[in-house]
Amino acid sequence: MDRSSSYILQTERLGLRRWIASDLQPFVRMNRDPAVMRFFPRPYTAEESAVMIRQIETFFDKNGYGIYALELRGTGEFLGYTGLAVPSFESWFTPCVEIGWRLRKEAWGKGYATEAALACLDHAFHTLGLGELFSFTSVLNKPSEKVMQRIGMTRLGEFAHPRLEAGHPLRPHVLYKIEK
Fold first, then answer.
1. 0.90 surpassed by pTM
2. Cβ(161)–Cβ(169) below 8 Å
């Protein structure tokens, strides 16, 4: 399956594009997977996943960039997402543009998150003209933190995620930044 004309960004193995209707079911399955969602307060419902796609597409329409659906070039297999967003909570480092990713469990350990994130960094800095990007995750999410390190981000420290109550095990977050 060659959808290369629909790709906004491409790497040797991956295509990053806007979301299409056929992404909904694999996205729902990914967001229901307890292993994928172990660093989130809970798995998402099907409706929450559908709302997220609508919000992503609305953000794209408004800003010209966003969170890209990630697929394996050649097969069109949905792998998850990688892209850019603006966090909706207030903290000392917001407003900002965040780079983030979430992949299906079957796509882990293959370097896809790093490969896609590097393509997004290049696009953010050289096409969109952004000067800096942030990334954050629970301090428990070492795999995601390693991706931040592999793409050249610098650890700024930790913060308490304002959307999680005091004492919640996922509330402590690491914060990373990279500049053009």
1. yes
2. no
Range of the domain at 55: 4-179
Q: Which amino acid belongs to residue 25?
A: Q
157 three-state secondary structure: strand
pLDDT averaged per 10 residues in sequence order, the chain, 180 residues? 78 97 97 97 96 97 97 95 96 96 97 98 97 98 98 97 95 97
Helix or strand (DSSP H, E) at 50: helix 46-63
State the pLDDT at residue 2. Answer: 55
Residue range 32-61, pLDDT digits in tens: 999 999 999 999 999 999 999 999 999 999
CATH of the domain at 164: 3.40.630.30
How many domains does the chain fold into?
A: 1
User: What size, in residues, is the chain?
Assistant: 180
DSSP helix/strand/coil, 127: coil
Separate counts of helices (H) and strands (E) for the chain: 4, 8
**Strands 98-103 and 67-72, how do they pair?**
unpaired
Other CB atoms within a 10 A radius of the CB of residue 67 amount to 27
Query: CA 158, 160, 166, 169: dihedral to nearest 10 degrees?
Result: -60
